User: Fold 6-phospho-alpha-glucosidase from Trichococcus shcherbakoviae subsp. psychrophilus.
Amino acid sequence: MKKFSVVIAGGGSTFTPGIVMMMLDNIDRFPMRELVLYDNDGERQAVLGEALEILLKEKAPDLKFSYTTDPKEAFTDKDFCMAHIRVGKYEMREKDEKIPLRHGVIGQETCGPGGIAYGMRSISGMLEIIDHMETYSPDCWMLNYSNPAAIVAEACRVLRPNSKVLNICDMPVGTLRRMSQIIGKDPQDLEVRYFGLNHFGWWTSVKDKEGHEYIDQIREYVAENGYLTQVEVDTQHMDQSWQETHKKAKDLLAVNPRYLPNTYLKYYLYPDYEVAHSDRNYTRANEVMNGREKEVFSAARTIIEKGTATDGGFHIDSHASFIVDLARAIAFNTHERMLMIVENNGAIANFPDDAMVEVPCIVGNDGPEPLGQGKIPAFEQALMFQQVTVEKLVVEAYVEQSYQKLWQALTLSKTIPSAKVAKDILDDLIEANKDYWPELR
Ligand code: NAD
Ligand code: G6P
Ligand code: MN
Assistant:
């Protein structure tokens, strides 16, 4: 079987060890000959790099491994780039969350003004790594899960339309795992129909391979409990704040019982509740810095000190399996059915062709082929049109360096009550992001 050469961009990410562990666990399904970590923060990456070097020498001595900040070294002779960069790191995520909250507005990584600010930072970083990939390995595919995926995907559509970049999110995968637990099935045995934007969509069907529909059974459970399940199902989405999010799906379903909601809709449908239940001085960024980031980096330091990884330390990230599935779909033309963020082109019949939507696709060696989801009802369509227009305005603002368009984007966001509040937030965000955003005129 062919062996692949892979670069992980954002090598210093808290998710890198979990993904590497998952790839090792799947080395028979997705054989690798080389793995390189690439990051523009050499110091941060070196901690994980050194620890993984020790681990891989023990577990996969034949796999050529290295870590580097040099794009040429990283991207030469690569088949796949797994990308999870965070431009501005947690320091800027904290600002994305806290600045809007100061104005009484949702402070979130990917939704509302925080997501818009993050989007304006991510576009440059993404273009940079796409260009590195195309310079040094023109046939390489990028599997991107860097956020905010909706804005990143729109920026790719506009600015790098021919690049081999696949945008994907793990939230639907994680929620399907919960659904499968609710009905006592294996997620692999389920096929879904779904439509929406990234972090903004609905399941319209959850069937097993024999065609039995489970959506009523799941709906009944979610109406009572949200997606909160009894047994721990995951390595991610387990902190207390995530449990609140799974639970809140109950109230999302109440507004719109027709379909099963993506948990991120809570920021658009219940912003007042979410703001009231946020701590302006301690947001999710703080929780992650004091939780996952500390755990992952201290596990790495322990491995380095001991000189061995045999006592554990790094854990397989259960979510990462979809990345292996996606890589395999491209590499071996498996025609795997997956939710992907793609240009609509009729997949949702009554939605603009040029919108980046999230729908089930069949993925083969040419990339994703979207499956038609038919016409959608007015309520969902109107919400989606408002949100997709926000995302398009952000990319236009970036390209045209337009203050006006970014102000409009914020004003249009369902999370912001008025143009005045939008302007106040924008002016604070510009100040906080001056090292990252293009200058707005
Ligand atoms: P992190 O801050 O721990 O890691 C990100 C790394 O990217 C850092 O080491 C940083 O130095 C590096 N980086 C920043 N800009 C770069 C550039 N231009 N070139 C190379 N490296 C760069 O962040 P994290 O919490 O581990 O998350 C990583 C990313 O994955 C984020 O974008 C996050 O939103 C995303 N994510 C997406 C999903 C999904 O479902 N799509 C799931 C989980 C995380
Ligand atoms: C989900 C989303 C990701 C997001 C992550 C945040 O997995 O799909 O897009 O980045 O949650 O998780 P965190 O633990 O960093 O708050
Ligand atoms: Mn996501």
